[in-house]
Amino acid sequence: MLTVRKSQDRGHADHGWLNSFHSFSFAGYYDPAHMGFGNLRVINEDRIAPGTGFGTHGHRDMEIISYVLSGELAHKDSMGNIKGIPPGDVQRMSAGTGVQHSEFNHAAGQTTHFLQIWIEPNVRGISPSYEQKTFAEAEKRGALRLVASPDGAQGSVKIHADAALYAGLLDGAESATLALNPARKTYVHLVRGALSANGQGLSGGDALLMEKETTLSLTDGHDAEVLVFDLAA
Questions:
Q1: Any coiled-coil ranges, and where (predicted)?
Q2: Are the C-beta atoms of residues 119 and 63 closer than 8 Å to each other?
């Protein structure tokens, strides 16, 4: 079963310093039909204006992934991590029993464009932890590169959740396929560009929700960057 969710159907909030699109209900955007998909709870596409950001705030019992598209995200947390997250890096923060952090764009003339992703954990009350890794463009070119998984396979960041995340870059004749477990759910989020997923044409910001499918086939990419989530049903 395939369901396309168009970019323009997402929730939207423009706070001036922050321009955000919400794939699922979040903050002031509430849609009972879109509360999450499987154990994927949040995908926020955020653009942070220069010299602004999220002040210190807290999280508990959530796996949080930051995927930066352009600019740089400055991260600081109560675990002592002070990091810059550039494009190509994947950051994972396990909130566990509780963590405080801030996220800022310190660049004078550049917007920070990134995805904030929340996945519900399969274990609660763990100690907070942090991980950040770089995935070269060549690893994602014409392929689906595993970037987050429960066991840190293939050098991916390790998440405490029954989920896996793949990232891919496709253009022209490049294609990628992924075998799926039909008992699980798959969520395809096109970050930018255009491509075809199992025959469904997608543009930047669109998503394809997949259930009871055995294969994902990505073709006809035009400067496409895509994230694919393998999720517990």
A1: none
A2: yes
